[in-house]
Specification:
Elements: H1 9-23, H2 30-37, H3 41-48, H4 51-75, H5 81-96, H6 105-113, H7 118-144, H8 154-173, H9 178-188
Helix pairs in contact: 1-2, 1-4, 1-6, 4-5, 4-7, 5-8, 5-9, 7-8, 8-9
């Protein structure tokens, strides 16, 4: 009978995700993962199968968290649908310009690996579709609330805001200031065709 594990897998996955989001997949060594998680190499292999398997687990976990965060921001609260979108985008501008932030594993993995790793590409595409659906549902709610012209293309607007938020993250990672990201957000809100009523 083996010794019982003295760690929580989700904690290890979260710590590994932090390491991968700092160094990317290619720049993160097994020694980095040992340092980040506090586990020995053999324990990492025994539990997760290796670096790639741990990376994919960390990516899946972060993608689920990212989708859940957007879903909560755009579907809950007393604000109107359009106000929820505006508040979320402005909060994103603040978060993405934080000097202590190092970028998400989701975006780094997509940029680094999606063009040559089918599993990463599939994970990213699935997440993008989920995010696009959340934006579309909120936009449709805004149309029903008479905030956005009901004739507007909700799918196209959802795609626009998905591209906007992913682009904002890349800009934030490059050091674009909070003021600049905020201007981007405020300009983007003018894309909404306001209800004629």
């Amino acid at each position: 009978m083996g010794r019982p594990r003295k760690f929580q897998e989700q904690d290890v996955i979260a710590s590994a995700g932090e390491a991968f989001s700092l160094g990317g997949y290619g720049g993160t060594t097994l020694d980095d993962l040992v340092t980040a998680t506090g586990l020995g190499k053999q324990s990492l292999y025994n539990t997760f199968g290796g670096k790639r398997e741990l990376f994919l687990r960390a990516l899946t976990s972060e993608v689920e968290d990212a989708v859940a965060a957007v879903d909560e921001a755009l579907t809950t609260g007393a604000a109107t649908p359009l106000e929820r979108i505006q508040a979320y985008l402005l909060k994103l501008a603040i978060t993405l310009s934080d000097d202590n932030r190092h970028g998400s594993l989701f975006t780094k993995a997509t940029v680094e690996l999606a063009d040559r790793d089918p599993e990463v590409a599939q994970s990213a595409l699935h997440a993008f579709r989920d995010l696009e659906r959340i934006y579309r549902d909120c936009i449709i709610d805004a149309q029903k609330a008479d905030e956005i012209d009901p004739a507007a293309d909700a799918d196209a607007l959802a795609g626009f805001f998905l591209a906007l938020t992913r682009g904002m993250e890349v800009l934030g990672n490059a050091g674009v200031s909070r003021a600049e990201l905020t201007r981007v957000v405020l300009t983007s809100l003018n894309v909404f065709p306001v209800s004629p009523r």
